[in-house]
Design a protein that fits this description.
Blueprint lengths: L2 H6 L7 H19 L46
């Protein structure tokens, strides 16, 4: 959660520091609790976007590892 997102959550314009800290504590508390909820889908236990459920049958265990790419999946390089 970036600082700009925290600034958007300011409710009391007279004391923005307290509102920012309150929003950060709420966010961190929900994130921490979300790591331990087994029956609720959270960012920590949700399946991958392109998970087809299949396992590769490779001879070497090195090639059987699944990997997730870095970066924004929506951006593509155009070579025009």
């Amino acid at each position: 959660m970036g600082f700009s997102e925290l600034k958007k959550s300011v409710r009391n314009r007279a004391k923005p520091e307290g509102s920012i800290i309150e929003a950060w504590v709420q966010y961190e508390s929900l994130t921490f609790c979300g790591m331990y909820l087994k029956d609720v889908e959270t960012a920590f236990n949700r399946p991958q976007r392109n998970n087809d459920g299949g396992m590769r049958k490779e001879k070497l265990s090195v090639f059987a590892q699944s990997a997730r790419p870095f970066g924004d999946p929506g951006q593509e390089e155009s070579r025009e």
